[in-house]
């Protein structure tokens, strides 16, 4: 018979929803006194009778028998080596212990406090309860030995203990384990949902830029075809040469636009890449991607002040932010208007200001415009653009993103990104 005796329970209903983590009621008891270990087992598993083995701290302990509990699955061991083996096996079987009761004075080569330290190294999620006496090490000594980072991973009860203390510690610790796992599971699901929303917004951005590129190509092809036809009709060498020069220039422009679009589109499928980035060049690239749509909607771009700055950043994410802001500004000026840009350094930050000459945002909805899924565009809006912009700046780049109505009219977005010197990143 194994040195570890298990006392199983009937499986409880799974936490909702159905694919959430299952409740964990697996408990480890480690005490070199079989009578004490058996007493704790009987408290946790009251519906079964099990033989009691008599021994002292100096005697060789015998394994105890298995029993069934309606609430807990209990494993009893008597030596540190058996405890570590039980924890390893539980992890290997993907059935980790939620908590354990550890006697402090084990009468072995290591005490219960050192054992817990080694157990937490194997399974940091396990919650430990020390079963101690007043002559054992005090609470401050235990906390100092385990370290500040483990403060929330252990508790203690004094001998002699009551049935209620053992049950309450077991229920509290296993419930805490369940809540922590449920929180992790919910965070993972939230992260997955966020990634889907982020991908959706990036696809919308790419689609908007793609429409601009398509229009730009239409114009370029018109130039190419028109000059080719003129050259063919005229037949003069000088006219043909001039036409070919226009065609080559238009073709080069088309190649540049297509290359830039492919680069930003493919970047959405790759992991974010942070490197020293020319911020002035980045905003220029975003403007070039929007050039045709600005011309079509009669939007004039006024670069009030654009300084040459560099920061450790994700270039493609910043282009996405600027394109989204430019599209919003264009929608705010349906009859045309002015887009004012400013890029400058302020107190170690790159500060971007993007202002339109539209009618502004009603004050009652201004606090909501950066909330996910909030939109004033009806079916034509996703409600993700500004929310994603805010997250890219504040979460991804550790900066600040604010939006408000400018005193002169229109909406002004201010972005701050921490700057890093080029020589510190090379």
**Any idea what the CATH superfamily of the largest domain is called?**
Response regulator
CATH architecture verdict of the largest domain = 3-Layer(aba) Sandwich
**What value does the Rg take, in angstroms?**
34 Å
Alpha-beta classification: alpha/beta
| CATH uppermost class of the largest domain | Alpha Beta
Number of domains: 3
The secondary-structure element order is EEHEEHEHEHEHHEHEEHEEHEE
For the secondary structure, the number of strands is 14
Topology overview:
Layout: E1 5-8, E2 26-30, H1 34-44, E3 67-68, E4 73-77, H2 80-92, E5 99-103, H3 112-122, E6 127-132, H4 139-146, E7 154-158, H5 163-234, H6 237-267, E8 275-278, H7 279-296, E9 299-306, E10 310-313, H8 315-332, E11 337-346, E12 349-355, H9 385-396, E13 400-405, E14 411-418
Helix pairs in contact: 2-3, 5-6, 5-7, 5-8, 7-8, 8-9
Characterize the structure shown.
- The protein is built from nine helices and 14 strands.
- With 426 residues, the protein is α/β, with parallel strands linked by helices.
- It has three domains: 5-161, Rossmann fold, CATH 3.40.50.2300; 193-270; 271-426, Histidine kinase-like ATPase, C-terminal domain (Heat Shock Protein 90, 2-Layer Sandwich).
- Strand 13 and strand 14 form a beta hairpin.
- The protein is elongated, with a radius of gyration of 34 Å.
List keywords for this structure.
426 residues; alpha/beta; Heat Shock Protein 90; 3 domains; seven-stranded mixed beta sheet; five-stranded mixed beta sheet; 9 helices; elongated
């Amino acid at each position: 018979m194994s040195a570890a005796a298990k006392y199983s329970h009937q499986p409880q209903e799974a936490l909702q929803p159905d694919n959430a983590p299952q409740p964990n009621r697996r408990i480890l008891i480690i005490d070199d006194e079989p009578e004490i270990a058996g007493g704790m087992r009987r408290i946790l598993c009251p519906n079964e009778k099990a033989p009691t083995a008599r021994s002292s701290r100096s005697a060789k302990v015998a394994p105890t028998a298995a029993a069934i509990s309606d609430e807990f699955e209990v494993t009893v061991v008597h030596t540190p080596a058996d405890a570590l083996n039980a924890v390893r096996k539980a992890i290997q079987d993907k059935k980790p212990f939620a908590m354990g009761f550890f006697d402090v004075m084990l009468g072995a080569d290591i005490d219960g406090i050192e054992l817990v330290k080694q157990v937490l190294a194997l399974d940091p999620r396990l919650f430990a309860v020390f079963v101690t006496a007043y002559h054992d090490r005090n609470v401050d000594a235990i906390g100092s030995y385990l370290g500040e980072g483990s403060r929330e991973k252990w508790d203690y009860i004094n001998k002699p203990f009551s049935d209620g203390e053992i049950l309450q510690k077991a229920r509290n610790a296993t419930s805490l384990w369940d809540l922590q796992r449920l929180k992790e599971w919910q965070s993972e699901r939230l992260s997955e949902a966020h990634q889907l929303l982020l991908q959706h917004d990036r696809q919308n951005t790419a689609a908007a830029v793609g429409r601009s590129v398509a229009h730009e190509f239409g114009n370029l092809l018109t130039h190419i075809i028109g000059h080719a036809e003129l050259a063919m009709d005229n037949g003069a060498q000088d006219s043909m040469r001039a036409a070919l020069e226009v065609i080559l220039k238009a073709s080069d422009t088309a190649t540049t636009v297509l290359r830039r679009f492919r680069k930003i589109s493919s970047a959405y499928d790759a992991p974010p890449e942070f490197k020293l980035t020319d911020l002035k060049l980045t905003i220029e690239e975003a403007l070039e991607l929007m050039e045709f749509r600005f011309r079509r909607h009669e939007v004039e771009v006024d670069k009030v002040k654009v300084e040459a700055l560099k920061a450790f950043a994700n270039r493609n994410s910043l282009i996405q932010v600027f394109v989204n802001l430019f599209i919003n500004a264009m929608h705010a000026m349906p009859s045309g208007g002015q887009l004012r840009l400013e890029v400058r350094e302020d107190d170690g930050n790159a500060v971007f200001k993007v202002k339109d000459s539209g009618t502004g945002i009603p004050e009652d909805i201004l606090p909501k415009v950066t909330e996910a899924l909030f939109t004033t565009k009806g079916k034509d809006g996703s409600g993700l653009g500004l929310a994603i912009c805010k997250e890219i700046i504040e979460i991804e780049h550790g900066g600040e993103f604010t939006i408000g109505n400018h005193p002169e009219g229109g909406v002004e977005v201010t972005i701050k990104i921490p700057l890093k010197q080029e020589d510190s990143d090379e």
